[in-house]
Design brief:
Number of helices: 20
Oligomer: single chain
Largest sheet: 2 strands, antiparallel
Shape: globular
Helix content: over 70%
Radius of gyration: 21 Å
Structural class: mainly alpha
Strand order of the largest sheet: 1-2
Strand content: under 5%
Distance between the termini: 54 Å
Length: 449
């Protein structure tokens, strides 16, 4: 059985030389898009728009663009080394606790805290189903979602769900962009002055918590950057490149598959940036104008206003169906990533042999049954999905600081195929400065303010 986490010369493949050929090998970024266009765009972005109006639009745009260069550095390092995400962190210089680098223990702690965020997501998904079928209790919907997620991942139907969730995500994206266009024919039409005011770099103290949460969760978030490592490996980018031998052939293959990965990440960025911007504009134009800020279990009904006010009341059912598939696909992609992350962490701290493929698959199956009930328990305990999701975004902003530390190490202390250009380094440093500012400001705000 071929293991994508073990490189072998037997599985090398020449990279495609044409643009059309590269398009055939896209995929990891689409999985990220299915994960991203969920709680971040549907809930956190709409909430920020409802809270701040148009004035915080620049925060969302920067959030989507700023983190891509760090993602590219992670993806490139994955292809060149074939290492898993936690292997990458374990190779960083600095303090070690037992067999592992300090960053792995911090990451384990932070992703445990993000159970609260996933609780908000699974609760939001159940709320959608409860609105579609109110005769079925919310708790029963939570159980159905939890069990179905576990069954799908446990049985190995990921590729089927990946394709279907991508179709649903694209459909919901078209619906959302259509809703923005339809605003022109309603009292909520967006004027040019309103749109331009979103780039005035206005930052009101009242929106700090929501803005930081949205920054941490929109675009490619911290856990998605880590997850991208696993999807690049499982797609075969590192496998096709082969074990590093510094030969001319290896260097050629590495450059070719890195170019494919760049295209994959950029196409995904275009997709989720477009959707995120559309969600924000709808929240600012409709919800802020009506003084409606989504909170509690009424958040899905509140967000539904951005569609019914622009496309008419008849679109409500279509919105709820679309919202379900967007949230559900995000949950599934998150569960698939988390089961890999936990397995990888357990391997690096010495609890399991990650490269025992049978053991790894068995552990992923066990985690598929353990994680969703924990998310359900978190939702039932807190029952404030917006707060839970934004809390996860704040935790994600802190986790991004560790990811930045790793990216700097990859760029300046690890092997590079060739010296990156000025444009690449400028984009990377823009990402680093943006992430550090928001992350540190978020820590200060939480601890001192």
């Amino acid at each position: 059985m071929h293991d994508p986490y073990v490189l072998s010369a037997e599985n090398i493949k020449e990279p495609p030389q044409t643009f059309a050929g590269r398009l055939k090998f896209l995929g990891p970024g689409f999985i990220l898009s299915a994960s991203i266009v969920g709680s971040g765009e549907l809930i956190a972005t709409s909430t920020l728009g409802a809270t701040a109006g148009f004035h915080a639009f620049w925060i969302i745009v920067i959030s989507c663009l700023a983190k891509v260069a760090v993602q590219l550095e992670f993806g490139k390092h994955t292809i060149l080394t074939g290492r898993t995400a936690m292997q990458c962190f374990n190779g960083l210089p600095g303090l070690r606790i037992g067999r592992s680098h300090w960053s792995i223990w911090v990451i384990l702690t932070l992703i445990l805290l993000k159970i609260i965020q996933l609780g908000g997501m699974i609760g939001s998904t159940a709320i959608v189903l409860n609105l579609l079928a109110p005769n079925i209790p919310l708790k029963l919907w939570l159980a159905v979602i939890s069990v179905s997620l576990s069954l799908l991942l446990f049985k190995g139907f990921y590729s089927v769900v990946e394709r279907s969730s991508l179709i649903m995500t694209v459909s919901f994206t078209v619906l959302t962009i259509g809703a923005v266009a339809a605003l022109a024919f309603t009292p909520y039409a967006i004027t040019l002055d309103q749109f331009l005011s979103g780039f005035a770099l206005h930052f009101s103290p009242e929106i700090v918590t929501v803005a930081i949460g949205a920054f941490g969760i929109t675009g490619v978030a911290s856990d998605e950057i880590i997850a991208y490592n696993y999807w690049c490996l499982e797609k075969g980018y590192a496998t096709y490149t082969g074990p590093r031998d510094d030969s001319a052939d290896w260097n050629r293959r590495a450059r070719g598959w890195v170019r494919v990965m760049y295209l994959d990440a950029i196409v995904a960025m275009i997709i989720y940036t477009s959707v995120t911007a559309a969600f924000y504009l709808l929240g600012a134009a409709v919800l802020h104008a009506r003084g409606v800020i989504p909170q509690g279990n009424e958040l899905i009904e509140a967000v539904a206003l951005i569609y019914t006010e622009s496309l008419g009341p008849g679109i409500r059912i279509a919105y709820l169906v679309g919202a379900f598939f967007v949230l559900y696909s995000s949950l599934f992609a998150s569960l698939a990533a988390w089961s890999r992350m936990y397995s990888d962490i357990f391997g690096q701290v010495g609890w399991i042999n990650f490269y025992d493929i049978s053991l790894r698959k068995r552990l992923i199956a066990i985690l598929a049954w353990v994680c969703p009930p924990l998310w359900v328990a978190a939702f039932l305990f807190v029952s404030l999905p917006v707060v839970m999701i934004l809390f996860g975004g704040i935790v994600g902003s802190i986790l991004l600081l560790i990811i930045v530390y790793a990216a700097l190490n990859f760029r300046y202390r690890q092997f590079q195929l060739e010296p990156p250009g000025v444009l690449y380094d400028s984009a990377l440093w823009f990402s680093i400065v943006s992430i550090c500012f928001v992350g540190l400001y978020g820590i200060w705000n939480v601890v001192f303010a």
